[in-house]
Automatic annotation (TrEMBL):
Coiled coil: none annotated. It holds the Pfam family Glyco_transf_4. Residues 177-294 form the Glycosyl transferase family domain. The keyword Cell cycle does not apply. It comes from Sedimentibacter saalensis. Residues 35-165 form the Glycosyltransferase subfamily 4-like N-terminal domain. This is Glycosyltransferase involved in cell wall biosynthesis. The lineage of its organism: Bacteria, Bacillati, Bacillota, Tissierellia, Sedimentibacter.
Length: 362
């Protein structure tokens, strides 16, 4: 099969890119002809990961000139005669990719949504009927994401998988990291996510400030980068808590860093799913998430949801009352919940084969 994977976001350390890399950076698709197109790449060396599996990776700038992008994409699709186009994105603005695939008569046109909201609400509302008309199949990371973009149309829910066993708790790693970062005697609150309005680190810093005022033997660890990082760093400085907030930037060893954390907080305004709290649960960590995060992320018993409309004191009280005992058998629980990336990749390949077989019979 000739498969084209299209992303509407740059290839970097962001949610969609990580999902794409985890799905295809394996030998499951070794017998298929897989090509990727990204608008840009923000991390040097990441493309090498996909290239190492024999995939072709192309960069086509999507944002600076959408019309030029559309015609370049049209030409590229026509030259390569793909069987399947699988579009990954967050909104109906991906109509541009699915329309190009329709024009060149690619028989299987999959739209895969990774969010339950987007920035351009009005554009999304206008384009949504067209997108649903043009795509032949629909994938979503959660039921909430499916309803947001596809309403009640038929849709395959594809869980955001990962290498589950890699994220299991390691006491040796915990001891080493807590010594390295000098947090041995502290309660460590952790968060993983790109710095953005949606991930809501502003609220998290306010929450930590309120908690830290009453419990000074506490630290906040922020893993990730993004457009809002400088603003958040300035806020931390103004609150005079710089010594107690660690900005670790983008990391490829999140599975290791989770070991030094005691409690994971994820206060997103909205999420299509949310892989980070799944990673935290594999490690056994208690999790406090906003109600903007789908309930389907809850696997362990020590996961709690609070409203962002609640007074911050409600969140502080939850931190004070939560048990910091790690969940036992968390790796097994997450595996049983269907988050193993090898199984999910295999299921996607089987779906491709099934869809191609159906098309051949028409």
């Amino acid at each position: 099969m000739k498969i084209l994977i299209l992303s509407s976001v740059d290839y970097g350390l962001n949610g969609i890119s990580i999902v794409i890399e985890r799905l295809y950076a394996n030998k499951i698709f070794s017998n298929e002809d897989v090509t990727f197109v990204f608008p840009n790449t923000s991390e040097i060396g990441m493309i090498d990961v996909l290239n190492s599996y024999g995939y072709k990776v192309n960069i086509m700038n999507r944002n600076s000139n959408p019309m030029k992008y559309f015609f370049n994409l049209l030409r590229f699709m026509k030259q390569n005669n793909f069987d399947i186009v699988h579009v990954h994105g967050n909104s109906a603005t991906n109509t541009i990719e699915v329309l190009a695939a329709k024009i060149v008569a690619i028989p299987i046109r999959i739209m895969h949504v990774h969010s339950a909201s987007c920035k351009h609400i009005n554009i999304n509302r206008v384009l949504k009927p067209t997108l649903n008309y043009l795509c032949t199949h629909r994938f979503a990371c959660s039921q909430q994401a499916a309803e947001y973009l596809f309403d009640d149309r038929k849709c395959h829910i594809i869980k955001n998988g990962l290498d589950v066993k890699k994220y299991g708790f390691d006491i040796s790693e915990r001891n080493n990291l807590r010594a390295e970062y000098k947090v041995n005697d502290n309660l460590v609150i952790g968060h993983v996510g790109g710095f953005s309005d949606v991930k809501n680190q502003r609220f998290l810093v306010d929450l930590f400030y309120s908690y830290h005022s009453e419990h000074p033997a506490s630290k906040l660890v922020l893993v990730g980068d993004g457009g809002c990082r400088k603003e958040i760093q300035n806020k931390v400085e103004k609150l005079s808590i710089s010594q107690d907030v660690l900005f670790l930037g983008n990391r490829n060893d999140v599975y290791s860093l989770l070991n030094m954390i005691d409690l994971f907080v994820f206060p997103s305004i909205h999420e299509g799913f949310g892989v980070a709290p799944i990673e935290a649960q594999i490690n056994g960590l208690p999790v406090i998430a906003s109600e903007g995060v789908p309930r389907s992320i809850k696997i362990n018993d020590n996961v709690y949801f609070l409203s962002l409309d609640d007074d911050i004191s409600v969140w502080v009280k939850q931190i004070e009352n939560i048990s910091l005992v790690r969940e036992s058998n968390s790796v097994e629980k997450v595996l049983n919940a269907g988050f193993d990336i090898s199984d999910i990749s295999q299921n996607i390949l089987m779906l491709y084969q099934e869809l191609k077989g159906e098309t051949a019979c028409k």
